[in-house]
Amino acid sequence: MRLPEGVLVRSRSVFEVASCDFGSPLSFVRLRALAKRADIIHCHYPWPFGDLLALLGASRTPMIVTYHSDIVRQRLLGKVYKPLQDQFFRRAAAVVATSDAYKSSSCLLQSMGEKVTTIPLALDCRKLPTPNIEREASWRAQLGQGFFLFVGVLRYYKGLHFLVEAARRTGLPVVIVGDGPERERLQSQAAGLCNVHFLGYRDDADKFALIRLARAMVFPSHLRAEAFGVSLLEASAMGRPMITTDIGTGTSLVNAHGETGLVVPPGDIEALAAAMRHLEDNPLLCDRMGEAAGKRCRRLFSADVVGAAYSKLYDRVLGEHLPSSRS
Asked: Can you name the CATH fold of 13-122+303-326?
């Protein structure tokens, strides 16, 4: 018996340890009931409590795991967690890396061999908001246009302290959209810089208005916890070039150096500043890269392309685990 399409079942988070949410025992009861009616359980990693849920609440249903990131920071807790992690991935029928770069540079993914396939994240360009002329005009009046834009949660691995320093060296306008644990420290670092603007969290209408006004999207992440960068897909879909860093993850899949933008070494303030100056001084290059970014986004990351890849994977896993149901 299949579940109706579009059903969302939520379970409350009870507490958090090392950025990992933990639910109540009722979560296991709910998942066990749902798993009996499902053909496949699709998990997203890393989430240690999710590992427990899958192992104890859905022990017989075929499981696919989308692997978003290595566990980068919690090394001590990682040693305690490893037995659960190993059992979780042994249980998985298939593991999906979001880029070949992450697949080849992650020790854990390399250890799984042929169990791992690559399917990128997606953006449904058909559902992007239509241009909001009033919002765009309002932001243009406040910020001008042609600024360098960052959109995302302000976390430790985003490398935004390097972006602030690059703004200090170049004097170029930088707009940072988002909130998070690093905001206070970054604002303190940027004190006295009139060319760095922190806008906090903004809704989609504001976000896409700002993307349309930007010269380029800048993603200066310096650690592998940045596995992909959905904001880069949004910038690509809007025809904006990108500046990213080479950290061996999906950011370099979205942004092809010299084609859709520029890729610089992580943590290299001078290289980041030089890339910003280069795009500032070459508006025609920005236009060409932005056009190429839009084409690349539609070719590789559209919802239809990625959805078809997942559909093929689901069919394969079902064929291997439920052969009688596929005849």
From this structure: Rossmann fold (3.40.50)
Average pLDDT of the chain? 91
Question: Domain 125-300: what homologous superfamily?
Answer: Glycogen Phosphorylase B; (3.40.50.2000)
Identify the bridge partners of residue 95 per DSSP, sorted by sequence position: 65, 116
Find where tokens 């834009």 sit: 149
For residue 173, cis peptide bond before it (omega within 30 degrees of 0): no
Q: At residue 156, what is the residue type? A: Y
In the prediction, which pLDDT does 53 show?
87
pLDDT tens, position by position, 30-40: 888 888 888 99
β-pairing, 63-67 vs 41-45, is parallel
> What are the extents of the domains in the chain?
13-122+303-326, 125-300
> In angstroms, what CA-CA distances link 53 with 84, 111, 129, 163?
11, 23, 36, 39
Q: pLDDT band at residue 323, thresholds of 50, 70 and 90?
A: low
Positive or negative torsion for Cα 11, 12, 13, 15? negative
